[in-house]
Amino acid sequence: MHFDIEEGQFLEIIKEIIGEEIVVDIVKELNSKPEITDEELANKFDVRLNDIRKILYKLYENNLASFRRLRDKNTGWYIFFWTLTPENITNLIRSKNKQVLGVLKARLEYEKSHIFYRCPNNCGACTFEDAMETGFKCVKCGAPLYNAPNSETISILEEKIELLNNTLENKEQ
Amino acid sequence: MKRVTEKDAYEVIRSAGSKGLLQSDLWRSLNTNSREGSRIATKLEKKGLVRRTKELCDGRWTYRLYVDERTQVSDVLWCTLNHCPCFTCKNLSQCGVGHSVSPNNCIELDKWLIDQVAEKNGKETLDESEEKTN
Fold first, then answer.
1. With bands split at pLDDT 50, 70 and 90, how would you rate the model's confidence at B68?
2. Which of A39, A73, A110, B123 could be B104's S-S partner, Cβ–Cβ 3.0 to 4.6 Å?
3. Could you count the other beta carbons within 10 Å of the beta carbon of residue A107?
């Protein structure tokens, strides 16, 4: 396919999503051949077969790789032939953006509808209702909780939601 | 009959360039049948990789296929909102209010929001001090 994986942010995105350094080399190798088996990849990079499979399944989960399998007549085991499908990256990003947008909107709603209290020892925040139950004392360290206004968090969330909405609209055009 | 992949079909359409390729020519060049050719072309169109326009050829209706240049990887915008952890979170698809993974009590999201607020305040104080010195 004419997708140049070196072009744009493709490799960067893959690395961030999969979260493994070696995925870049694996993707390059997959892209250089029409099909490749997991065993060939494991031998090439001198990585355990299980680790290679884990990365390949992560790519598959994200629709960035596909496979076909054949049964080995001698051993009776399946041989998996893997192919990179980089063209699905646009759909993947679009769906991730939509999912994150939903998460941020839910969080914004939560922030807007609650009053928060924080522990001075950075043990975390809790809502007014939870703080009432514990007598405005931290559950973890017992320190008295203080009222933490969340107007800044709300404005950050609104800003990010707007940014994400704009990104999604640009892509839909 | 040879097994034809979407990748093969896409490559053939792309090599036809801006003038495009008739769907009937596609399946002939892939050495397969019209049913398979139509199936693959529809799939590629659904994925937004190719564009199809109806065309009358030798008294029969067919489609002309073009590669949609908008789908090149270089056009992909990866905006992670200044490293929002949700983009790389493996639980993103299960995340929701009332679920076991919820945006309301996610530690990673909390940390990111605190960092964002701190960063914004830091920038503002920096701007204020710059204004004062000016």
1. low
2. A110
3. 24
How far is residue A111 CA from its own chain's centroid? 23
Q: Answer yes or no: do B39 and B56 share one domain.
A: yes
CA distances in angstroms from B127 to A7, A140, A153, B67, listed in the order given = 36, 37, 20, 48
Residue ending a domain, choose from A44, A62, A84: A84
Average pLDDT over residues B41-61: 83
A15 and A60 assigned to the same domain: yes
**Percent helix, strand, coil in chain B (nearest 5)?**
55, 15, 30
Out of A41, A63, A84, a domain closes at A84
Residues in A touching B78 (Cβ below 8 Å): 9, 12-13, 16, 93
Q: B10 and B40: one domain?
A: yes
Residue numbers of the domain that contains B118: 70-123
Do B49 and A104 make contact, defined as CB atoms within 8 angstroms?
A: no
**Residues of chain B contacting residue A12, judged by C-beta atoms under 8 Å apart:** 78
User: Which ipTM did the prediction report?
Assistant: 0.78
Per-residue pLDDT, averaged over A12-31, amounts to: 86
d(Cα A11, Cα A7) in Å, to the nearest integer? 8
Pairwise CA distance, residues A62 & A49, whole Å:
20
- Give the SS3 label for residue B95: coil
* pTM of model > 0.80: no
Residue B134, domain member (yes or no):
no
Q: Which of A13, A91, A152 sits opposite B78 (nearest CB)?
A: A13
Which chain A residues are closer than 8 Å to B109 by Cβ?
Answer: 103, 107
Query: Angle at CA A14, nearest 5°, toward A173 and A3?
Result: 60
